Amino acid sequence: MKYNEFLVCIKRKLEEMLGKDYEVIIAKIRKNNGKVFEGVTINKKGLNISPTIYLNTYFDEYSMGKRIDVIAREIYEIYERNSISHNMNMAYFSEYENVKEKIVYKLVNFEKNIDFLKDVPYIKFLDMAIIFCYYINNIPEFDRASITIKNDHLKLWDKTTTNLFEDAKINTPRLLDVKINNLESILGHNFASKDEGSFDSVLHASANDDCQMYLLSNSTYVNGAITILYPNVLSKISDILGKDFYIIPSSIHEGATRFAI
Fold first, then answer.
1. CA 260 to CA 242: how far, in whole Å?
2. How far apart are CA 180 and CA 184, in angstroms?
3. Model pLDDT for residues 30-80, shown as the tens digit of each residue
4. A Pfam family in this protein (predicted)?
5. Domain final position from 82, 101, 121
6. By C-alpha distance, which of 6, 4, 47 is closest to 23?
7. What are φ and ψ of residue 114, in 5° steps?
8. Helix (H) or strand (E) holding 23
């Protein structure tokens, strides 16, 4: 069975399982660095929000022998665990004053996101682009989700990219505090180690060590590379260390920071 046929079969099987009170939609989802995935969204009548479950890896499992009905059951169980039982007030999102205090920014690769950037406000930064999101941190079911700000939102709000940047510059450090951690702790998956003290304490502890490698990120370790743009962060590192350092943007989630004399 080819991939497109697999998608049709999964959709049909889910529709059989769920019944007429649900709508099953399969669509292409554009992700970071130009990657496109197929996702299935299960919409229950009367609700305006639902999780999307990616299907690409399930096709790999099917190719290795897993049955369609077993895969459909797993997808349904994921939906059940992550479904939202109430509507989201989207009218709230139509007024900029309602959302401005949760506008945050993050970094993406510029070249690999050319098509994506056509639809969103952004600011070019070196070989990257600063884009903007609405950060959802007050709804437990979403677990640090975000809504990407698009050009259509700016038109709706009658705002500019500069407005977004000025608000995000204040909000992002407030909502997603800067963190710095010894690389050894990260590699050992020990995020709660004693090396992750306050920003200042970790830096002071490393001030006398030559060529230490640290990771600079935010409190969630997601999209933390943007911390290199937090006001005064880089100058504070330099002041505390009293030495030069290199920054290596290793991913969108963190920057590897090498302290050297």
1. 10
2. 12
3. 877 778 889 999 988 887 778 889 999 999 999 999 999 999 999 999 988
4. DUF5688
5. 82
6. 47
7. -55, -50
8. strand 22-30
